[in-house]
Write a structure and sequence with these properties.
The protein is α/β, with parallel strands linked by helices and 240 residues long. The protein contains five helices and eight strands; from the N terminus they run αβαββββαβαβαβ. The radius of gyration is 19 Å and the shape is globular.
Length: 240
Amino acid sequence: MSPSRRHLLQSFAALGVLGSVAPWALSAEKIKPGSDAALIVVDVQNCFIEGGTLPVAKGAEVVPVINRMASAFANIVVTQDWHTPGHASFASAHPGKKPFETTTMPYGTQVLWPDHCVQGSADAALHPELKLPSAQLILRKGYHADVDSYSAFMEADRKTATGLAGYLKQRGIKTVFVVGLATDFCVAWTALDARGAGFATYVVEDACRGIDLNGSVAAAWKNMTAKGVKRIQSSDLALA
């Protein structure tokens, strides 16, 4: 351990804060994704970037972070929200309802969104500055007209699988790193389902941005942590 790192840890100990520091922050070793790890890039699309139909605040900031991270991964999966016109999750499909209100669907409570990420539209396209030439799979979700789909693994009815878990397992993937938009919806649902499917799961916080409806970002982190999802920064990775 370097003298500077030893001094830092001694300072933390003197302040009595070591117990609140995440274990990975105390390790001199950075995380190096191996051949059995995959980067899952969630919904970095025009619709979720400033100027899109459902923009996430500062959403574009994730793009250069993800581009830098990509070189560290031999396996990359990209997801796209890919809704039918008049999708059941759109407020416009429910007379009298406004965006961000809720309704009850056969599978439970559904947040109603502005029309967004309609199939084949420029709004649904991946952000033009996203550079992932080595990505092997683009997985589209939310294309069933009557059910929403946040997770890259399972649609909102919690019955319909996308096939991603089988794809990753068949390729020998054991660990996934999740990034993208939005932290409190598609990223969190993807991470939780990844853990449920048996993958070691990391969410890279500075490569994500959230919508934050009524404290939903904090709630998502609490839920993910409780389920064993690890919260890291891109600086914790050994990048090429």
